[in-house]
Amino acid sequence: MKFMTKLATLLVAIALPVTALVHAPADAAMSADAKRAKIVSTALNLKGKVNYVSWQNRQEKKAPYATDCSGFTALVYKLANVGVTLVNRDDDDQAKVGTKVGYGNFKKGDLLFFWNSGSKNHSDVGHVGIYIGDGKMIHNASPSKDVIVSSINSSYYKERFIVGRRVIK
């Protein structure tokens, strides 16, 4: 019996540091590039696990997740745990955070904002995605497409681009 107690104590002592690492907050020493890479991998890993729904019907507590485009970006940043929490899950609010980035100067993890094709106001944010590199973004596009990767250089997105925002410094 004493052997089992000592073995259990030893196993707990060994397991504690591993558990602490798994649940530790974002590493402040993590480089910006490492944070950006983690955002991209987290977003790509959510393909097939997120369904597009209107903002009134969002459910982002457990997979399968149900959200809109700005809920998706907030969810990615939350799950990546890189020390950045996006304000709210509203694309208009998200378009005001971080540092403004001009077209063509994007880094992985930057948020890209667009106006919707049905909007008459071309400065009104209607969609957001996350830049993943190589001229592409990942975004929760629509009820028929869910999370997809798209070229930001397509005429559709290029002409609807409003602003990029860098939230990882």
TrEMBL record:
The keyword Hydrolase applies. Residues 1-28 form the signal peptide. InterPro entries: NLP_P60_dom, Papain-like_cys_pep_sf, Peptidase_C40. PROSITE patterns: NLPC_P60 (PS51935). Gene3D superfamilies: endopeptidase domain like (from Nostoc punctiforme). It holds the Pfam family NLPC_P60. Keywords: Hydrolase, Protease, Signal, Thiol protease. Residues 33-168 form the NlpC/P60 domain. Belongs to the peptidase C40 family. PANTHER family: MUREIN DD-ENDOPEPTIDASE MEPH-RELATED (PTHR47053:SF1). This is NlpC/P60 domain-containing protein.
